[in-house]
């Protein structure tokens, strides 16, 4: 039995629990944020070493804004644009793959390096293991064909449908490109509408335009 | 993409939300040094192991994971005979993560991990050695201008210090703090109030620190 006496606790409420003001008071006991950051890094390293980390993620800067890179031990699982909301993206990964997710950069070091090279015009294709479990069926089949489009080139949704063996599935090809969980690395940006207009892109039309211009410029430079 | 039912938070979000609270609890119980850092790490590692993975996620190295978890499981613990693929020993260790009030669950784990650290400290060859400084490589408490609040917490009598740790810092109700510390709710209530008053006296001499609630008058 809890005995209570009036005025004993600082706030006049259920004295067995803290009020918001009291919780705030606790926050005046400093735990420096850089110390917590160092502890989080150490936790991620240990979790990874002991096989308890299912998804490691990081964010990197790029000319088209911050990108989130997430990987399982099988390979790169997700590349996301800031516009998608990184917290939302991580929640979807928690729901669909595993909630054992920590910020841990080392697992995605290779793809981060290759993205730097790509944006600097020094890389035309990515060489990293991919974990394709976020896609299934026709979408996955279309996405597997995307790296077959050469750097600096584009094809139409209709042509992709032909390549996928379902020439009438133009809309489904559009959906497959729009739901590509590995944009940039799997080049869905190289697929356009038949009239040459951009079509949709997870990272927004400006990003798609940027990537196509980058590849065109680099390809022309290389061919001279 | 189809909206999926909202499941457990990404564990990284759990660390971001509750990391500071758990570190305050660990520091109050163990002092602001390497012991508190170790208890913090063990707390979140144990919580991560109990945190749900979606059923489809293959283990990184199933054989190694099983061996590792057997090693951690208490000898004689009943091996779960159900086909539940969940990490049973991990859950048996800390309990299943609750749907709400994850923080209280973490504070209870921190309590157990702090006890482990205290036991390990007692087994050290030089048991009277002072607590070692933090070794995570950034400015420890010594580098912090308001760090004199932590020595003040460390100077509290044990009962008050633990009541401050679990109630004021950890947010546990008196009944639960009493269970954790082998005390009674009434004694915990008194110790929490006395500890708070003692800290207020120290903090009111220190203009750099924030005032506790109710100290305005």
Helix-strand blueprint:
The complex is a heterodimer of chains A (224) and B (217).
Chain A: H1 20-26, H2 33-49, E1 55-60, E2 67-72, E3 75-81, H3 86-96, E4 101-103, H4 109-119, H5 137-145, E5 155-156, H6 157-163, H7 170-178, E6 191-192, H8 205-223
Parallel strand pairs in A: 1-4, 5-6
Antiparallel strand pairs in A: 1-2, 2-3
Helix pairs in contact in A: 5-7, 6-7
Chain B: H1 11-30, H2 34-50, H3 62-72, H4 88-94, H5 102-123, H6 149-154, H7 158-169, H8 174-181, H9 185-204
Descriptive notes:
The complex is a heterodimer of chains A (224) and B (217). By secondary structure, chain A is an alpha/beta fold. Chain A is built from eight helices and six strands. Chain A has helices at 20-26, 33-49, 86-96, 109-119, 137-145, 157-163, 170-178, 205-223, and strands spanning 55-60, 67-72, 75-81, 101-103, 155-156, 191-192. In chain A, a hairpin with a 2-residue loop joins β2 and β3. By secondary structure, chain B is an all-alpha fold. Chain B has nine helices and no strands. The chains are: A alpha/beta (224), B mainly alpha (217). At the A-B interface, α1, α2, α3 and β4 of A face α1, α2, α3, α6 and α7 of B.
